[in-house]
């Protein structure tokens, strides 16, 4: 009796290692963010992150040498950009500042981001090495981005030639940070708009 041949099954495409690596990376960052909010920075471990993300610890060390490096990338992932990304420069300084500050208050309004930020700030107060890393890798680059935008505005004659850009950055950011940190009032787009209007009245060219 003649044997009948069966059609061969189509070959399955090989797994894409880049896609698999990206899934693992995102799982690690998500796990680190969750754990940071639950246990704090001091009690956060690479082992716990690996267990929550369901990856091997060596997979984490492939991309990040320390847990601080993981946490910095958690912030980057949640804020949607690298620390120190340039501010928008459309030629309308008021609008550019509102755009960035609106995004900041929206981040503060996110419950997970709020919890992680507060845990991180608490840890910075008692861990000098972490504080320096945060300052060097997160805060200074972001402050420099604001300063650079104000310097370009000063060169364009949009703010007074005698404006101290570092002081101007403080005038814009400190009220937002103080209101968030102390829970002293609502952080809304309307608040940001009023803040920018007030600060810009002080910075505009004299005469």
Automatic annotation (TrEMBL):
Pfam families reported in the protein's UniProt record = TetR_C_11, TetR_N
| Gene Ontology MF term list | DNA-binding transcription factor activity; transcription cis-regulatory region binding
**Keyword terms of this UniProt record:** DNA-binding, Transcription, Transcription regulation
Q: Where is this region: Disordered?
A: 1-22
Which residue spans does the record list as DNA-binding? 45-64
Record-linked PROSITE patterns: HTH_TETR_2
Q: Which superkingdom?
A: Bacteria
Q: Which residues form the HTH tetR-type domain?
A: 22-82
Report the protein name in the record.
Answer: DNA-binding transcriptional regulator, AcrR family
Give the organism, scientific name: Nocardiopsis flavescens
